[in-house]
Amino acid sequence: MAKVRGSIVVNIDRCKGCEICMISCPTGTIAMAEEVNSKGYNFAYPANPDLCIGCANCAIVCPDGVITVYKTKI
Amino acid sequence: MERELRLMKGNEAVAEAAIRAGADGYFGYPITPQSEILEYLMEAKPYETTGMVVLQAESELAAINMVYGGAACGKKVMTTSSSPGISLKQEGITYIAGAELPCLIVNVVRGGPGLGTIQPAQSDYFQAVKGGGHGDYHLIVLAPASVQEMADFVELGFDLAFRYRNPVMILSDGAIGQMMEKVYLNPHRERSKDVPEWATTGKPPTRSRNIITSLDLDPEAQERFNLKLVAKYNEIREKEVRYEEFQCDDADYLLVAYGTSARVCQKSVQLARMEGIRVGLLRPITLFPFPSERISVLADRVKGILSVEMSAGQMVEDVLLAVNGKVTVKHYGRMGGMIPTPEEVVENLRSKIIGG
Amino acid sequence: MAEVTGIKEIIKPENLVYKRTGIMTDTVLSYCPGCGHGTAHRILAELIEEEGLQSKAIGVSPVGCSVLLYNFLDIDWQEAAHGRAPAVATAIKRLLPDRFVFTYQGDGDLAAIGTAETIHACNRGENFLIIFINNGIYGMTGGQMAPTTIPGMKSSTSPFGRDVRMMGNPLKMTDIVATLPGTYYVTRQSVHTPANVKKTKRALRKAIQYQFHNKGTCFVEIVSNCPSGWKMTPVESIRWMEENMLPFYPLGDMKVPDEKTGK
To answer: Which end of chain C offers a freer environment for a tag, N or C, measured as fewer CB atoms within 10 Å?
Structure first.
């Protein structure tokens, strides 16, 4: 059975650190960075990139539209 | 140009002239003494002929904001009301001025304050000429003195509104709105198909998006916009002053009056001259821009000036500013729906100016 | 653009599944972190792109937090006075009947100062879309009580909770407009989870398509959060919304056209 693998790209500077992507991620891929962006927000990042299934839930709920999502089957 | 002759009320003339001027939309709300305008339009059904939209709104607030929406589409739109209704429209009017939208607003003035009366008055001069709503802005204000001018100023008003991207007000009163006179009507003008470049009509790929707003949170940008408005108003002051003179050439005394008061004063001039008093009348046709320069020139020649208004004394302040202390300026007014008689005007000219 | 990425090998154009629509401009949204406005804007923008309506769309933005909405979507906009958007949109749609016209209004704008304009536009059956963001509070002015603030809910002008005996009851505008003969499609949705975002997008797509049926007003309420006004973190605000707002404002369609008759 083909396994679905995903990957996200987070636009750091536009992220406001609201964490809604993190709680919406079904696989626990996303966490909030220790460091902050130019606005002082702890930004979202794929802390466990191997877990990403490319479902785009994070991007769909992101109020600021900072996440781009890719998906492939291997 | 063949003009059609009709006997009409001033209010009806506004409605008919709007259809003939190729207006795209009318949004109104009934109030005495101007309800005939909406009634006439509903009866005439221009939406079946020219395609002009006519809508009775749920309030004056809604009506003026419909005007905002239509004007922002680049359409030729208008509303009409009377004093209390015009007060309600002030919010929309300042937004329209702030968004630099062209439109026509007709105020068939009745006495105030508050509900006041349904009889004619000229007590909305300050509101029309000095602002009305908040912020630094001006309307172009036209003051008709006849049913003919009620009709003519609709087309003129639309033309000025689009030339300057500025709201235009016809400041009439209950007498001119309700009186019947003969009126020559212009032939029908096609509704314009031109779309102004600033209009919001849906963004084609060929241009960037158009935004109609009166908001700028950046103070420097807002001040630049205010200065742009000031420059526009100065251009209007320079180019659009309109007035009419009646026997001013040899006058020793001057009456200044607009609208219904000017009609009365024309008779007063005749009465005074029969008694050997050489009086002239200056009738401002535009109240903004005000014919200040002409009044200043006449002030060099006359011994005194009486401002005659159906108000407690509003236009007289602009006359005083124009005269700047050169001669005596006094005010005579009736209020509450009362119209001065020609005799009263002569009597007051005598007591306040000649005897004074 | 600074960015962090997952597995680099997967990031290829052919693998792209989600990307911010080009109808959204590059302007950074003026909203607080976690605010549902941004999500609502984005799905609206996606629909304008997907339905090919950029050249037909005329939006009317409100007064409230979304007053600067016209900076965020690359379409023609009119900024209305507080509460007057339905009157503004009425004229636009009547003068340009083939355009896609919508208002986007908050609860103070639509359900307090603009109640008359909202109800009368809906009652006349004006053929435009009203998008109503209900977060139960005045966000822009700093968290005051709104007409939609639920009983017991705290705000800066109901600091001990809304006491309905003193402050009156919350107004359920969507329930009201659903009873009016002029409305065609009335629904209440939310954008706080991926599933709800998808449902809201479906509802909005229907509302957009229905506009061209010329059968009346479409009205889509989106129950949303206001972390700053509610004085919560974004995640807390979503939990609070689920536990408190949604029982009072239950999600779902309130008026749907009959698919067979189209009425």
So the answer is: N
